[in-house]
């Protein structure tokens, strides 16, 4: 078709293709631990990210279970309120920055080069550096729990002045670790943008890219835009704590509300950073198992971009009760309600893709379908929260906790698991054990709903979030939530078993592991060899 | 496949039994003010809209999942675009949202109209209690949780209003527009009473406004809604709403009590008197941070029992209570406690839990200190 | 110019005919779309703010 279209193949891609003309040209990789420390291979780094994220998912999960165990019944029975606050804070920080974000980066590392027909990421050494910053950052963060005065105890939103004047001494370490994690995210995002813009297979235009690549491209721009804002705000905290400035200290003429504006200017795009790649994964899985092309590819791309742009205009809906002027309150209510439109479009597109398809229910599809249903429930409670007057009642209650866990757990986390089940055959050469995967799925679905659905009720009935003990009328809801959380936590052990079994053996998968799969990654053998697409593939355009 | 439908049926039965189990106490309270009722109805409208959207969307989805199964030999169609449908499902949600925004805007404007108040109450958040000042009425007091820590630790049976009871409830008249001016002495708190639909952050250095007009006398309970530190879960709010006459009488009574207290400053107090008074003040004001037997919660909240600096330096001790410690969590009690209370609590902390200094601090000394 | 504005509006709304999209990609100048997109994005923000401020009066 058109000669004027984007592909930039001539120079960039031919060099890498020539360099890797045959497998013998690669030097033997170092053995043992050094191989992993020094690797610049996108597949190995992708695996490192995914393993790191899984470990952190369990650590953050254990913190959540400590919280749920304390809330199992009224009264302080297991831990002290100080430690409870550290557990809620650490759970949030670890899950956001060390579990969900690295999991998506890991999937991006593995799959983006394979999906666009590139031999590796654009900046392989940077890729290695971005990963190895993460263990440093989070070992530092976890070590604060052992310091005098304990770790961060001011919630993952760390509002000043609770996180500055009134914070434990370990807060400086917390700031350092967030800085390191932030650098890692920015470098990773730059790498992804460079890869997608420069290394697509000849003939693949932007509007031919799989949606996972599109959503990650937009996510990467979000990361580059907002991570520096986070870095700025924690640097201001650092100055307030250690160098006598008064950015957020009212007694010195500072402004505690400024902190919240800055934090949520980062924080709201951040929540879309955690969900847009999930949209991409689900948009790959649903057409595959409905054996039908994705409905409305172009509007999916538009919707992703709209959500990303609007995410910069809605931050103060987290601050409806801080006393904003009426006009600001209205502005942020309107823009927030608008976000429901592109998000709704996505859900409608997925469902129309299912309509008149030929649907089968392999494990990745089960998770993707549960994602659509449960994410939509989270989205609908989000619309309720957008109504500013009603938010005066919802704000800072368990209703909010229910809302964001619905979009993050059966939302982001289920999408990650769907992606893992979908691509495991490509990674390991084996299909995951279907029976075990089904057990994992159903136990997770039941667990997640038992945990988070009652939180809607306890929130509406008046239970504030982040309290270590509660009045007697909330006891039943909390009992159910706690039981559900133990079930959900335990069922993730099944997931680990599935993954380990799949790595070690199982039914052999062909290159095209799923009948309805179409993207480029299914054209390389399963398991994918260490080096793929050393000569750029010829891209066959499908109908989009 | 069969197992899948068994599981699914199980989930559906579980979900279907939910509404049956829904009683009052599962939903937002309707409340006792005009605003709270409007918010409740906004909440229910948007809730039912969401339910309707959910039924349609999930209906189509589950129909497709059932009807177009590969295992039943469904052949997939190949359509992937339809501009008309896409325009419709973008425009319809937009219209629904505009429809929601109109009543929401109207309610929000009412909530922001704090003009023509008949009574102004200043609410000050402090770690971990509330201070209420009736502006222009010379009445002010502190309100702390009165649930004994023994109930929290499970050593005593929990009472009916466990964690939602205070020593001095905020007293308000019904049928009068009350304006709240809210601020904080330390970190950000949030004053929330669900029955009034009033939730507003109290922020150091800012004064936020909100208002209410209560329709029915009664006792209404709420809690701090913004994480404010260790005892965030233990700073409840209790409002006692009274008939207007009763309220006026209560106000007069409180004012007289305050005057009597002021006269007590000049006389010489016995140690026993001060100790008794001090124990109460300590429990209400200090114990939430420094703990019930002065063991503190280091490093942010130091121990008082056996604190060497406290034992050695009475002048420093009194200064810390009056002026606070700048840059740390200890607030100044100069304006929140009166001289008798400061003298009493200083005497108590110098003699309780084995501190046994034998020191007695007289209200008159404190008054002198305060005057400087 | 009007064509570019229409295409940007369609992108804001999220729905565009495949035919029009192809034409835009084949004939349009990227810079024109970027500039018009930014300007209209700004207009959108100013528009919502104007509504909010008017209603708040």
Note down, in words, how this protein is organized.
The complex is a heterotrimer of chains A (544), B (372) and C (57). With 544 residues, chain A is mainly α. Helices cover 66% and strands 0% of the residues of chain A. Chain A contains 16 helices and no strands. By secondary structure, chain B is an alpha+beta fold. Helix content of chain B is 44%, strand content 16%. Chain B has helices at 2-21, 34-67, 83-111, 149-152, 244-263, 271-290, 308-312, 314-323, 339-351, 363-371, and strands spanning 119-126, 129-134, 139-143, 170-173, 178-184, 189-193, 198-202, 208-212, 218-224, 236-242. In chain B, the strands form 2 sheets. Chain B has a 5-stranded mixed sheet. Chain B has a 5-stranded mixed sheet with strand order 4-10-9-6-7. In chain B, helix 6 packs across helix 9 (339-351) and helix 8 (314-323) crosses helix 9 (339-351). Helix content of chain C is 86%, strand content 0%. Chain C has helices at residues 2-13, 18-27, 30-56. At the A-B interface, helix 4, helix 10, helix 11, helix 12 and helix 13 of A face helix 1, helix 2, helix 3, strand 7 and strand 9 of B.
Keywords:
heterotrimer, B: 372 residues, alpha+beta, Cytochrome Bc1 Complex, Chain D, domain 2, 5-stranded mixed beta sheet, 10 strands, C: 57 residues, mainly alpha, 86% helix, elongated
Encode the helix/strand succession of chain A as letters: HHHHHHHHHHHHHHHH
Q: Which regions of chain C contain 5 or more consecutive residues with pLDDT less than 50?
A: none
**Number of helical stretches of at least 4 residues of chain C:** 3
| Radius of gyration computed on alpha carbons of chain C | 14 Å
Low-confidence stretches of chain A: 1-23
Largest sheet of chain C: none
Shape annotation of chain A: globular
Give the mean pLDDT of chain C. Answer: 86
Which word captures the global form of chain C?
elongated
Mean pLDDT of chain A: 92
Strand content of chain C: under 5%
Order of helices and strands of chain C: HHH
Main structural class of chain A: mainly alpha
Please tell me how large the radius of gyration of chain A is.
Answer: 23 Å
The separation of the N and C termini of chain A measures 14 Å
Quaternary status: heterotrimer
User: Quick one: how many beta strands of chain C?
Assistant: 0
């Amino acid at each position: 078709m058109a000669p004027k279209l984007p592909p930039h193949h001539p120079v960039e891609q031919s060099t890498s293709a020539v360099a890797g003309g045959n497998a013998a040209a690669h030097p033997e990789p170092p053995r043992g631990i050094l191989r992993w420390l020094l690797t610049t291979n996108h597949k190995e780094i992708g695996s490192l990210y995914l393993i790191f994220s899984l470990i952190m998912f369990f650590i953050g999960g254990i913190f959540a279970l400590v919280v749920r165990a304390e809330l199992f019944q009224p009264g302080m029975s297991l831990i002290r309120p100080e430690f409870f606050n550290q557990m809620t804070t650490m759970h949030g920080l670890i899950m956001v920055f060390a579990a969900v974000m690295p999991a998506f980066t890991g999937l991006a590392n593995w799959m983006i080069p394979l999906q666009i027909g590139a031999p590796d990421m654009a900046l392989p050494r940077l890729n290695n550096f971005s990963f190895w910053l993460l263990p440093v950052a989070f070992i530092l963060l976890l070590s604060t729990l052992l310091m005098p005065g304990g770790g961060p105890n001011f919630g993952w939103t760390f509002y000043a002045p609770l996180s500055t004047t009134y914070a434990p001494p370990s807060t400086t370490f917390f700031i350092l670790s967030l800085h390191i994690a932030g650098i890692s995210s920015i470098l990773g995002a730059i790498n992804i943008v460079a890869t997608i813009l420069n290394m697509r297979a000849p003939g693949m235009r932007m509007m031919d890219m799989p949606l996972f690549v599109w959503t990650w491209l937009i996510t990467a721009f979000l990361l580059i835009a907002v991570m520096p804002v986070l870095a700025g705000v924690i640097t201001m905290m650092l100055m307030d704590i250690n160098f006598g400035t008064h950015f957020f200290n009212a007694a010195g003429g500072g402004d505690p509300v400024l902190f919240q504006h800055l934090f949520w200017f980062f924080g709201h795009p951040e929540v879309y950073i955690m969900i847009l790649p999930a949209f991409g994964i689900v948009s790959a899985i649903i057409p595959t198992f409905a054996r039908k092309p994705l409905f409305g590819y172009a509007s999916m791309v538009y919707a992703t971009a709209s959500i990303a742009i609007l995410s910069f205009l809605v931050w103060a809906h987290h601050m409806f009760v801080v006393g904003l002027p009426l006009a600001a309150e209205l502005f942020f209510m309107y823009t927030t309600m608008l976000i429901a439109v592109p998000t709704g479009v996505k859900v409608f597109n997925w469902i129309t893709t299912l309509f008149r398809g030929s649907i089968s229910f392999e494990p990745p599809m089960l998770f993707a379908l549960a994602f659509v249903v449960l994410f939509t429930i989270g989205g609908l409670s989000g619309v309720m929260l957008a109504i500013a007057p009603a938010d005066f009642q919802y704000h800072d209650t368990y209703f909010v906790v229910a809302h964001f866990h619905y979009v993050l757990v059966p939302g982001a986390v289920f999408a990650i698991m769907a992606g893992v089940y979908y691509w495991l055959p490509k990674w390991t050469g084996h299909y995951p054990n279907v029976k075990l995967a089904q057990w994992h799925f159903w136990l997770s679905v039941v667990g997640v709903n038992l945990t988070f659905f009652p939180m809607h009720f306890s929130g509406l009935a008046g239970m504030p979030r982040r309290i270590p003990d509660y009045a007697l009328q909330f006891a039943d809801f909390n009992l159910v939530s706690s039981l559900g959380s133990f079930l959900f936590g335990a069922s993730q052990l099944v997931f680990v078993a599935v993954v380990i079994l799949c790595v070690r053996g199982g039914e052999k998968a062909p290159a095209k592991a799923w009948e309805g799969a179409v993207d480029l990654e299914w054209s390389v053998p399963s398991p994918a060899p260490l080096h793929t697409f050393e000569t750029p593939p010829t891209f066959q355009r499908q109908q989009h | 496949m069969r197992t899948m439908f068994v599981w699914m049926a199980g989930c559906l039965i579980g979900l279907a039994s939910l509404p049956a189990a829904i009683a009052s106490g599962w939903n937002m309270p309707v409340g006792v003010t005009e605003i709270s009722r409007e918010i409740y109805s906004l909440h229910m409208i948007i809730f039912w809209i969401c339910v309707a959207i959910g039924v349609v969307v999930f209906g189509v989805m589950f129909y497709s999942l059932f009807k177009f199964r590969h295992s039943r030999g469904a052949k997939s169609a190949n359509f992937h675009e339809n501009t008309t449908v896409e325009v419709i499902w973008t425009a319809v949600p937009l219209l629904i949202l505009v429809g929601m925004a109109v009543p929401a805007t109207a309610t929000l404007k009412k909530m922001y109209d704090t003009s023509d108040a008949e009574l102004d109450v200043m609410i000050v958040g402090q770690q971990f209690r509330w201070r209420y000042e009736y502006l222009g009425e010379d009445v002010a007091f502190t309100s702390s949780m009165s649930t004994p820590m023994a109930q929290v630790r499970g050593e005593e049976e929990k009472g009916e209003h466990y964690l939602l009871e205070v020593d001095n409830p905020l007293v308000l008249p019904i049928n009068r527009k009350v304006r709240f001016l809210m601020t904080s002495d330390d970190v950000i708190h949030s004053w929330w009473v669900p029955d009034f639909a009033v939730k507003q952050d109290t922020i150091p250095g800012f004064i936020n406004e909100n208002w209410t007009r209560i329709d029915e006398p009664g006792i209404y309970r709420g809690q701090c809604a913004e994480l404010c530190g260790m005892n965030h879960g233990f700073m409840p709010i209790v409002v006692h709403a009274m008939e207007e006459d009763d309220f006026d009488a209560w106000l007069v009574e409180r004012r007289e009590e305050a005057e009597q207290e002021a006269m007590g400053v000049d006389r010489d107090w016995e140690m026993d008197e001060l100790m008794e008074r001090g124990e109460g003040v300590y429990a209400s004001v200090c114990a939430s941070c420094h703990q019930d037997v002065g063991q503190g919660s280091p490093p942010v909240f130091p121990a008082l029992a056996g604190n060497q600096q406290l034992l050695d330096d009475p002048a420093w001790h009194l200064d810390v209570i009056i002026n606070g410690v700048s840059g740390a969590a200890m607030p100044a009690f100069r304006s929140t406690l009166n001289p008798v209370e400061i003298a009493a609590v200083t005497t108590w902390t110098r003699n309780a839990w084995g501190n046994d200094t034998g020191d007695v601090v007289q209200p008159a000394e404190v008054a002198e200190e305060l005057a400087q | 110019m009007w064509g570019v504005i229409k295409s940007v509006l369609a992108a804001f709304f999220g729905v565009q005919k495949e035919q029009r999209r192809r034409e835009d990609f084949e004939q349009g100048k990227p810079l024109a779309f970027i500039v018009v997109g930014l300007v209209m994005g700004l207009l959108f923000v100013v528009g919502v703010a104007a509504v909010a401020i008017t209603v708040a009066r």
